[in-house]
């Protein structure tokens, strides 16, 4: 019946590229989690909206589940196809479709890489400000599906703030044209916003209209060495009050050790418990003087141990590499990842509590911290010891994640800040959402995807 169904799909859409080789199934059937063995039915690679609609209609009739796929850089198992699903890869739908100079709106297909969007924006003298280390491989469709944030959320917000309109193929194959780039639209429910962050469970994004903005004024990058968590929060408050921050990213000496082993260069001598890479506007001499004054005050208060101010673009890039290179440097160690958030005001108490929690629960396991202090987002990477089997390591980490989820619930936080829920975190959704909210999510899912074919098992159990 499987072969018959695929033959029917090919007959309906004779121009559709369909991959069934073992290497392709493995490549397109997984994301960066690497925890599940990929086992997709096949890989469909549509080149048009009409082909996406045709695939969805076929899937409804043949009762085949679909896993939408972009750059597959996700860390929550949201793009995993391990149960015979059809992977619908949007890799061929990767073009810029147009630019409206009046509305400053760039219209793109979902498979285009974030970096290509940023380059297209710069070509118009503008910027698309959402940014993070995976910019060269992640896709806009995936960014929308997870409401991706990144390193400059403190200044520009998440992906959600930059989506003017979406075209989406719903679970029944119907094409929805949502918001159409309007700035003001009070004509009922904004389904555009509902699709953002829905992880491909309600519809498949097939076109996006992205808002662009002016390039920021000249900025400077500073690396700070800090003695403890308390000092980090004091420095954040100080710098936010004195400067116009674009980014405020922290990492630990443990994280730095891995990045240095991966080829980066140490910028501050000695070992320090915590580091911050901060970027701030420095368009004139007054702004630069304010930055130096803030730094000196931090030194006097004992909140800052040492620091480096980038003197060139090359040095700024080298400082940023110390933060952005962490994820890549940890990959060989098969990290178990937690991506959590709390209100910035709740961070000090939350950080103190989870420091004790992680030290108690992982006494012999290396834990690497880094994240976005400016928006309350913390990444916790637990590195697998060689002495533990994969199954035992995952079991231990899942036990600790439940404790972490309980802690987040007490502090009003979220088990997923920017990576989505996927397969990894669905068991902990109730720590972030009430039973009433989850019930409404199921109702919404049924309305947009009545046969439950879109990314089943992700987000909702």
UniProtKB/TrEMBL annotation:
Domain of life: Bacteria
Cofactor(s) for this UniProt protein: FAD
InterPro entries (UniProt xref): FAD-bd_oxidored_4_C (IPR004113), FAD-bd_PCMH (IPR016166), FAD-bd_PCMH-like_sf (IPR036318), FAD-bd_PCMH_sub1 (IPR016167), FAD-bd_PCMH_sub2 (IPR016169), FAD-linked_Oxase-like_C (IPR016164), FAD-oxidored/transferase_4 (IPR051264), Oxid_FAD_bind_N (IPR006094)
Pfam families in the cross-refs: FAD-oxidase_C (PF02913), FAD_binding_4 (PF01565)
Keywords per UniProt: FAD, Flavoprotein, Oxidoreductase
PROSITE patterns named among the record's database cross-references: FAD_PCMH
SUPFAM superfamilies membership: FAD-binding/transporter-associated domain-like, FAD-linked oxidases, C-terminal domain
Protein name per Swiss-Prot or TrEMBL: FAD-binding oxidoreductase
Native organism: Dyella jejuensis
Taxonomic path: Bacteria, Pseudomonadati, Pseudomonadota, Gammaproteobacteria, Lysobacterales
């Amino acid at each position: 019946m499987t072969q018959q169904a695929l033959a029917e799909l090919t007959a309906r859409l004779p121009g559709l590229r369909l991959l069934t080789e073992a290497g392709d199934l493995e490549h397109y059937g997984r994301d960066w989690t690497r925890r599940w063995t990929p086992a997709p039915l096949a890989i469909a690679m549509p080149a048009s909206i009409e082909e996406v609609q045709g695939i969805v209609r076929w899937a409804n009739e043949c009762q085949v589940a679909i896993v939408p796929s972009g750059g597959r850089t996700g860390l929550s198992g949201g793009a995993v196809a391990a149960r015979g699903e059809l992977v619908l890869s949007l890799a061929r739908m990767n073009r810029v479709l147009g630019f409206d100079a009046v509305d400053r709106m760039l219209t793109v297909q979902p498979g285009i890489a974030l970096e290509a969007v940023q380059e297209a924006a710069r070509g118009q003298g503008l910027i698309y400000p959402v940014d993070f280390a995976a910019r060269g491989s992640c896709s806009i469709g995936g960014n929308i599906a997870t409401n991706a944030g990144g390193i400059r959320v403190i200044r520009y917000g998440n992906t959600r703030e930059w989506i003017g309109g979406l075209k989406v193929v719903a679970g029944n194959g119907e094409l929805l044209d949502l918001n159409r780039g309007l700035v003001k639209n009070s004509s009922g429910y904004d389904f555009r916003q509902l699709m953002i962050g829905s992880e491909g469970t309600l519809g498949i994004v097939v076109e996006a209209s992205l808002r662009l903005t002016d390039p920021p004024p000249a900025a400077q990058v500073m690396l700070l060495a800090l003695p403890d968590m308390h000092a980090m929060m004091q420095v954040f408050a100080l710098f936010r009050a004195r400067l116009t921050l674009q980014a405020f990213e922290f990492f630990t000496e443990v994280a730095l050790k891995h990045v240095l082993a991966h080829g980066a260069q140490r910028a501050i001598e000695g070992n320090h418990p915590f580091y911050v890479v901060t970027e701030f506007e420095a368009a004139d001499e007054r702004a630069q003087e304010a930055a130096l004054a803030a730094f000196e005050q931090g030194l006097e208060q004992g909140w800052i141990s040492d620091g480096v101010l980038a003197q060139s673009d090359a040095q700024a890039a080298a400082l940023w590499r110390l933060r952005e290179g962490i994820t890549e440097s940890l990959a060989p160690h098969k990290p178990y990842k937690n991506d959590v958030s709390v209100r910035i005001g709740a961070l000090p108490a939350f950080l103190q509590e989870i420091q004790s929690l992680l030290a108690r629960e992982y006494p012999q396991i290396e834990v690497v911290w880094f994240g976005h202090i400016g928006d309350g987002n913390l990444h916790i990477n637990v590195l697998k010891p060689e002495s533990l089997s994969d199954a035992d390591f995952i079991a231990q980490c899942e036990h600790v994640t439940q404790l972490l989820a309980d802690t987040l619930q007490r502090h009003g936080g979220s088990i997923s800040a920017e990576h989505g829920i996927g397969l990894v975190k669905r068991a902990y959704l109730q720590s972030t959402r009430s039973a009433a909210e989850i019930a409404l999510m199921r109702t919404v899912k049924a309305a947009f995807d009545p046969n439950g074919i879109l990314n089943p098992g992700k987000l909702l159990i």
